[in-house]
Write a structure and sequence with these properties.
Elements: E1 2-6, E2 16-20, H1 34-39, H2 59-62, H3 71-82, E3 90-92, H4 99-108, H5 111-114, E4 119-121, E5 135-137, H6 164-169, H7 176-184, H8 195-206, H9 213-226, H10 234-249, H11 253-257, H12 271-287, H13 293-304, H14 312-324
Parallel strand pairs: 3-5, 4-5
Antiparallel strand pairs: 1-2
Helix pairs in contact: 3-4, 7-8, 8-9, 9-10, 10-12, 12-14, 13-14
């Protein structure tokens, strides 16, 4: 985290002085209070500090979330960041200070997004930055130098039009359900564009007991991609998987066929129970009368990929049926 400012104390024109706070990546998840971090960096041009001077900030203080400020700006940035069609960087060309809004958003971000979130104050697009910026702040008269950048408009945000993900990112209480889903399923996100997808996941989890087969399969697919198996997420993932197994056991052949695209490597605790449910479903199909066209298509798909985890219960059923006959 760097603060750069013009340095008129040197002879050569255009020189700057930079103060940088280095934070280990292992501590990035607990660094919530950006205003406090910047407050301990020097802001004047006094005698240069010795290199690698420790910053004396209590862990409890740096972990506190800053007070939310600039509500319209937060809502505007949250709406843009969550929109899949938004092309980064965003542009802040208001005379209002941008750090309070950035600090509120930063406090919300999971670790995966913190590692990729970057903000800079620049005078020109040609200025080199070590990372691709998420947000560029500049002087109001210089916005034309970034003609394609989406502008953060502080006077157009409407909180009533925000999705749960956008409300959460903006620090609104309406995002509590979204925040709980992130925690319950140990979800880390590397991209802002995926926030609305996780928002739909949070909505489905809130209706878990009444979810349809299609919705439950979608939720499991999202969990496979973004949920980490941890001590905190394990019992919550189990509830989701139990719902899918129950629906699979009563599912149609068409529904069972769609399960072959699940990412088995990311769902180690689901696959054995799901295979058992699929076998029970196929056994029930065979017990009620002659197999239909969809049943035969299901078995043909299993025989075409005998080594696939999904094929195993149907091949087992065929072997049992052959012995019975």
């Amino acid at each position: 985290f760097m603060r750069m400012q013009p340095d008129p104390t040197v002879r050569r024109a255009g020189m700057v002085r930079t103060y940088a706070a280095y934070v280990p990546l292992a501590n990035l998840g607990s660094l919530n209070n950006l205003p406090l971090l910047f407050s301990v960096l020097p802001s004047g041009l006094g005698p240069p500090l010795a290199q690698c001077t420790p910053l004396d900030i209590p862990d409890s203080a740096i972990a506190e979330n800053p007070d939310p400020r600039q509500a319209n700006a937060r809502f505007a940035m949250a709406r843009l960041l969550c929109a899949p069609e938004t092309k980064l960087p965003l542009l802040w060309n208001s005379a209002e200070p941008y750090l309070p809004t950035v600090a509120t958003l930063w406090a919300q971000l999971p670790l995966g997004l913190r590692e990729s979130f970057s903000f800079h104050f620049l005078f020109t697009p040609e200025h080199y930055t070590s990372t691709a910026p998420t947000l560029i702040a500049t002087l109001p008269d210089l916005a034309g130098r970034w003609p394609s950048a989406p502008v953060v408009r502080l006077d157009e945000a409407n909180p009533l039009a925000l999705t749960p993900a956008q409300s959460w990112l903006a620090g609104s209480s309406d995002g509590a359900q979204f925040d709980q889903a992130l925690r319950d399923y140990s979800i880390d996100l590397p991209q802002f564009a995926r926030l609305n997808l996780i928002s739909s996941f949070a909505d489905m989890i809130s209706r878990l007991t009444i979810l349809s087969f299609v919705e439950t399969r979608k939720a499991v697919n999202i969990a496979a991609k973004y949920s980490r198996l941890t001590a905190e997420s394990k019992p919550n993932r189990a509830k989701l998987f139990i719902r899918l197994c129950a629906l699979a056991q009563a599912g149609t052949s068409e529904e069972l066929l769609t399960l072959r695209n699940l990412e088995a490597a990311s769902l180690p605790e689901l696959i054995p129970d799901l295979q058992h449910a699929m076998l029970a479903s196929m056994t029930a199909h065979g017990a009620v009368g002659p197999l239909g066209t969809a049943d035969f298509e299901l078995l043909e798909a299993a025989l075409a990929e005998p080594s696939n985890w999904w094929s195993a219960p149907f091949i087992d059923w065929l072997q049992q049926a052959g012995k019975t006959m």
